[in-house]
Amino acid sequence: MTTTSRRRWPRISPVTLLMGVAGLLAVVSVGVYRTKLMQLADIRAERNRLQAELAAEQQRSVDLRATQAYLESPNAVENEARKLGYGFADETRVIVVTPAGYVAPTPAPPPPPPARPQNWRVWWELFFAPET
User: Fold this and answer.
1) How many beta carbons lie within 10 A of that of residue 33, not counting itself?
2) Is 92 exposed, middle or buried (0-12, 13-18, 19+ CB in 10 A)?
3) Over its length of 132 residues, how does the chain's per-residue pLDDT go in tens digits?
4) In whole angstroms, what is the distance from residue 81 CA to residue 89 CA?
5) Nearest-angstrom CA–CA distance, 129 and 127
6) What is the Cα–Cα distance from 54 to 61, expressed in whole angstroms?
7) How far apart, in Å, are the Cα atoms of 102 and each of 39, 105, 106, 110, 123?
8) What is the distance between the alpha carbons of residues 67 and 56, in angstroms, rounded to a whole number?
9) What is the spatial distance between Cα 94 and Cα 105, in angstroms, rounded to a whole number?
10) Computed from CA positions of residues 67, 72, 77, 78, in that sequence, does the dihedral angle turn out positive or negative?
11) Among positive and negative, which fits the CA dihedral 55, 56, 60, 61?
């Protein structure tokens, strides 16, 4: 006797089916929302990094413009010319030659500070010193 009995799935009511679909949609929505939040956090971090980089580059630009303005000024040209050994036509240049083997004298040590009187003597003078 071979009877094939088919196993029947229990019937699902429409309300249960609707609740299951709604729950599934809620889980999927939370997953998508979480992904979007993570992307938003990454975008904000990138924006902050780029703003910091922009501020640094703007400061660098200001510094470079100030350096350019100085280098184009007559003072900078004169300073660089003097470093290279050039001078004005009406100037007399003096070159100081140090003899070979010359050792500069060591400066004299500073004088020692005056000796501090003992505490009892300071108090004695405060109370019993003659008034002037």
Assistant:
1) 10
2) exposed
3) 556 667 777 888 889 989 999 999 999 999 999 999 999 999 999 999 999 999 999 999 999 999 999 999 999 988 998 888 888 888 887 788 888 888 888 999 999 998 988 999 888 888 888 776
4) 13
5) 6
6) 10
7) 73, 9, 12, 24, 54
8) 16
9) 23
10) negative
11) negative
Tokens 């630009």 found at: 61
Q: Is the pTM of this model over 0.70?
A: no
Stated length of the chain: 132
What DSSP string runs through 39-94?
A: HHHHHHHHHHHHHHHHHHHHHHHHHHHHHHHHHTSHHHHHHHHHHTT---TTPPP-
For the chain, the maximum distance between any two Cα atoms, rounded to a whole number of angstroms, is 141
Q: How many H helices and E strands in the chain?
A: 3, 0
- Residues 6 or more apart whose CB falls under 8 angstroms from that of 12 comprise 20
